[in-house]
Amino acid sequence: MVQNYTLFIPALPFLAFAIIVLLTRKSNRLSALVAITGVVAALVLSYGVFVEALSEGAELSLNPFYGAPIVWAPYGGMSFNFGWYVDPIGAAMLFMVPTVCLMIFIYSTAYMRHSHVDEHGHHHNEDDPRYARFFAYISLFTAMMLLLVISSNLLEFFIAWEIMGFCSYALIGFWSFRGRKEHHIDDAQVGRARAASIKAFLTTRVGDVLLMTGIILLLLTVGTLDFTKMYDPQVMNNMLSATTQPLPGVEWPVLIALLIFCGTIGKSAQFPLHIWLPDAMEGPTPVSALIHAATMVSAGIFLVIRTYPLLTFAQETGGAAMQVVAIVGAFTALFAATMGLAQNDIKRVLAYSTISQLGYMLAALGIGAFVAGSFHLITHAFFKALLFLGAGAVIHAVGTNDMFKMGGLWRKMPITFVTFFIGAFALMGFFPLSGFWSKDEILLEALRGGYFPHEGGQDIFLQVIYLMLAVGAFITALYTGRQIFLTFFGKPRDPEAYEQAHEAPAAMWAPLAVLATFTVFLGFWNSPFAPAFFHFVGETGFMGMGPFEHVEFDQIALSNAFLSVGIALSGFIAAWAIYGFRSVKAGQSDPLAHLGIIWKMLSSKYWLDELYGYKINLDGTAKPGLLIRLVGLVMRFLWWFERAIVDGLVNLAGWFTRLLARLWGWVDSHIVDGLVNATGSVTGEIAGWWRTMQTGNVQNYALVAVAGAMALAILFLLRSFT
Amino acid sequence: MITQIPLVYYLALAAALFCVGSFGALARRNAIAVLMGIELMLNAVNINLVAFWRYGAADPVVNQAGIVFALFVITLAAAEAAVGLALIIAIYRSRDTVNIEEIDLLKW
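Structure tokens for the assembled complex are given below, as produced in the milestone run.
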């Protein structure tokens, strides 16, 4: 019963984080060891849960591993708990995340050592000055990613999501300040890293705020965020019982589903919030591989998977929620691929590729191809981590990110080349690598109309989606081929960099080899002949949704497979014709630059950074986009308005009130008080004079008494005489 | 028959005595003298009471209210003299004087 220990999976890397921060931060080796121990422990436990989940089989969808023992925030009759929820796709993530993490941890131990040449011409390797901190951050990140995967409710999910966002920020800006003895980074890089980390944090924040709004609205309308309770049809119907629509023509479920999807747009870098991910490449390469390719950005996809019943419910109750997901995904898949075509930075090409592939996953989920999208999530994580780590090995060897300063590297670093090649071919979708199985299935589902029952099956919408994805696949092959030819083939364009290039150390190529192995074989988990992944994830349905129908392997599937390989092949051949046949010489510009304005548009990323983003230049300076500057102008005007007009009015009112109060104070102290004092002093004067009658001398009193008696007697006598 | 002294003689004596007493009570500075003045006034009243009894009552043997009154006044005077002297002694002890003009603690 390993499942009862599921909560320890995130707890162990978190413990490693705490140990590094509190105890071992002075020792680089020890910190790396603690971090790797933590992730290995999490990996063992995860595999245990994964195997147990596999043994449950498809039944797991109906009865997921669930427990919520830690009561965190009770409210009313309910409470927010910390717990676990492992269904088949969650189990598959528990297999993927720790595996990729472990590989990247091992890789980082070598990558974060930098080589430099001293004044005598000797090569030195030394640890990054913040080596231990790096491992602390990625341990925290791993813990939160695992917590996200196993979280039992949306709030727990959101907490992990936000802490990951912080880790992403901290790691993108990892080189945003430099110490005294750091030779490997320059001031421009410091500036770029600083700007990029802020850009990433703020851009994802836009999505996160909307996500939080969605979660709050969901809690208000449904009453629970727990995954086991939330998707009960009766509970979901609570959303419809509201009498008013939130917006005219939009039902609550649609609004909530789309607000939550906004979180995905931010985190998974979908259009229009994709602008942060390419700049996030300023972080160390293992970070790009771990956070900005394999895991954190796929957390956005995982959010869609976790809220999939909500999306389908919104779709059924009259809203185009799924279509929005599909169109955003498909558009981003195509759009990002075109931008990837015109990048010279080896990591930026991969960044755009990541955005594009995440778009594929969303398009799949949006058309109802739940299993295909989930499977692409898993396979993509492996081959994209592989590609990034391979790129990192290249960067480590030649000391630059610019592909136009590379070339011919396959002779110098064969292992890196072979593994990178495998990853690239998986990305392009060549049979029989894992990328082929998952991407081909997405295209096939788009062709067929998806698992999700659309009216009329084949409609124009799906055809558009299919077309976008197919063209995207062509461009994917084109830019990936370009990357391979520019980096590994042809003549070296920078002899000095070429000379110092060397094969990566074992700690770096071993993870590459492991990931390449997964990339080759993982696809067979869901081949059409033996779709084990489908049986596991999709067969019994998902969180109360009806079971997905598995489509038999038939003529259409076969022809589609040929078609998608053909697309990939034609893209690769086109790349060979442009970049491979006559290799690019040193100093020569990109052959595609003849496209003129189109090329300019692609290489400037459609000027979106200038339009609404934050443009980060190579020299480390940064400039806000037009929209931001416009908002800035408005803000400045409002500030002026506030200071001059509003404050002025308030001050005037205050001044006037003070004047009035002073006047009234004078009246009070002089006239009113004067009257009161006058009454008192007059009374006092009279009394002071009058009281002297009391002499205290008894004889005086007696005299008065006698005089009175005599007066009375005289009066009496006078009366008696008259 | 022996001619009686007329009533008005008694009354004149009593009035004179009262005047002497009240002068003593009002004008003397010595507290003992004031007390003696008060005694004189009381005795003037006694003379009046007895004189009116002797001359006024229809049957002096039966109707003896006048002399009873006089007896009461004498008793009262004795008590008053005792209390008054005690007070004067107390005042003398605390203030070393019996000059009534200096005993004015209760003035304004």
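The interface with chain B takes residues 691-699, 702-703, 706 of chain A (CB under 8 Å). The radius of gyration of chain A is 37 Å. Further analysis is deferred to the final report.
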